[in-house]
Amino acid sequence: MALSLPTQCPHTVNPLRRSPKPALLRRLNHRVCVVSAATPLLQVNDLKAKIVESNVEILHGVNLTVNQGEVHAIMGKNGSGKSTFAKVLVGHPDYEVTGGSVVFKGENLLEMEPEERSLAGLFMSFQSPVEIPGVSNDEFLVMAYNARRKKLGLPELGPLECFSYLMEKLQLVNMKPDFLNRNVNEGFSGGERKRNEILQLAVLGADLAILDEIDSGLDVDALRDVANAVNQILTPENSLLMITHYRRILDLLNPTHVHVMDKGKIARTGDLSMVEAIEAEGYETVSSLT
Amino acid sequence: MSLSGTALWPLGLCPLIPCSWSYGRGRGRGRGRCRGSASSDPYVLELAESLEDSLPSSPSPLRNLRMASSEALLSTPWPSRREEPFRFTDLSFIRNSRIHPVSHPYPVTLLTPLSDLPHPLYVGPLSALSSPSLIHQVSQFLSSSAPHHADLFWSINGFAAPDLTLVYVPQGTHLDNPIHLAYHPSHASDTMHLSNPRVLVILEKGARLHIIEDFSANHNHSYWTNAAFEALIGEAAHLTHSYIQSQSLSAAHIKWTSVRQESSSTYQLTEVSTGAKLGRHNLHIQQLGPDTVTDLSTLHLSVGDQTQDLHSTLVLDHPRGYSRQLHKCIVAHSQGQAVFDGNIQVNRYAQQTDAGQLTRSLLLQPRATVNVKPNLQIVAHDVKCSHGAAISDLEENQLLYFQARGIDKNTARRLLIFAFGGEVIDKFPCSSIRDTVRTQITNLLDPSSV
């Protein structure tokens, strides 16, 4: 499976994903899921990881398979290991894998450097994106976009050649052009940071996008913008893994699978109906059911 | 004693008695020459002699300066690490070299075409100046201009500067194009050539000037540049000063910048120093009247076994002064070192001063060293002053952010280092200088890209 670049307008968007009717969507997602069930994108097997500095093990054997075209959500209590799981997948140096395996597009993900994972088609939106003073947003995007083009054997583009492409993506997240001139995340509001993460996803494209609490700290309008953008970026070929505490984004993005994480493991897997049970009875009850 | 190339007396013959020092061109051993003094350092005496031998007949206005400097020179020993100003700066590199003072050719060249300069503005050697009144003014200034903390190197320059480059901008004159001074060191393979370029800038009331001092070198020769730059900024005048030091990594570069600011004047300095094995900048700014603006931005980079040192003093004695100082250091080598001693004095009458100082250092290798001593001395009570110091490596979080978007770690590091230095580089008013400096730094950080 080759990494694809979203080089044009969101032409490959599945329009049905943007349908306002959740019931229909759920069924269609299900269909997509059935079609692509044979193509595993990410296979996580008994993954164990610890914090390097304190030697504390956080992940105690995570098992998860994400197939092409699926939309997964991971929920769970604070401290259950959701974000750690996401960070381990992108190769965060604060964590060390102590056991298990992760195969992404048929390759051993754990042997790759973080930038190789990105170039292989794995994207993670950071929960708290770091400020980078002195580096402008457009400079950063052009550099990252060119790194991807280079990987694909395409010629690198100058800033001017990238401009119209960036402008188009900017509209997707509903931001003004001056957003590009500002330094990466410097002085950004919480909402601007999240939009910036989605902008990066739109520019770079991904086979698997991991959205770590992309909805936290967003107001209703911003959440809708972000969800709309994600829906437009999604195609039947790529997949989404989101980590969230809230139902609202689940209703907007319609996961095909919902997992509950507890004590460093996936404790339970179901569909959207499980979210209702969580809201009614809490994580403890839901994760103890097997 | 390594100053063998030019020593005229065996040390044992140097009479250790208080003496008078002749600043003229006395020829012949012993006649009209230094007799030493009880407190002086034999090494310095020897150096002084070789300096004197190197001097051409000087223009008379320098005579007062030379006289004042000779006295100071003979009573000042070679600085030791036990003295606070040199506590972290090891001068043995100079001391262990064979020094050979040279005064010809004069190392300063003017790159700005003279035809562009309006009359009666003067840019050129003092020796070629014909206006008696201006000569008198310069002579008066030079004999009284030594900064309070002047050290041995100031005296060496004052004594041995063969000429002086004068930039005189009369009242109300605005110069649109910068005055660009290039410094060319002379070098030899077996000795360390010492040159003493000296520049004096006089801006009269309301004048405006941008001056560029460019100390560059393409070769890896060993030499010692001991430069002095003085400026007198008249009332409401405006001096922008760009200073680029990219000399040979086998060279010593010692520089004094001494600036006096009259009321409502502005002084803006942007410095990027990346060259020399030993680089030392002594920056002294004295406020002579109220409402002055002083803006200092400096970037020091050590990519090898190098010391980059900034010792700055800003003395505020009058009300409503405004000053900002930003000093950044990057040490990218395990034997590299950066030193910063930044002193700001807000004295009794300097009420309503607004003074800010910030120093940030990046240490990119294990054992890379930085010694910073930011210090504010505040006597006035109605003032707004701040200072801060930060020392760190690049942040892992920032590096990961680049990597997570497919940009490799080395590229990310380089970009982050650039972003760190960019804050200073962006302050150069000329885009050509910004580009030159960026290219220099790119080449220094990544020699393979040359």
Automatic annotation (TrEMBL), chain A:
GO terms for molecular function: ATP binding; ATP hydrolysis activity. Residues 42-288 form the ABC transporter domain. It comes from the Eukaryota. Gene3D superfamilies: P-loop containing nucleotide triphosphate hydrolases (3.40.50.300). Keywords: ATP-binding, Nucleotide-binding. Pfam families: ABC_tran. This is ABC transporter domain-containing protein. It comes from Psophocarpus tetragonolobus.
From TrEMBL, chain B:
It comes from the Eukaryota. Residues 192-420 form the SUF system FeS cluster assembly SufBD core domain. Pfam families: SUFBD_core (PF01458). InterPro entries: Fe-S_cluster_assembly_SufBD, SUF_FeS_clus_asmbl_SufBD_core, SUF_FeS_clus_asmbl_SufBD_sf, SUF_FeS_clus_asmbl_SufD. Signal peptide: none annotated. PANTHER family: PROTEIN ABCI7, CHLOROPLASTIC. This is SUF system FeS cluster assembly SufBD core domain-containing protein.
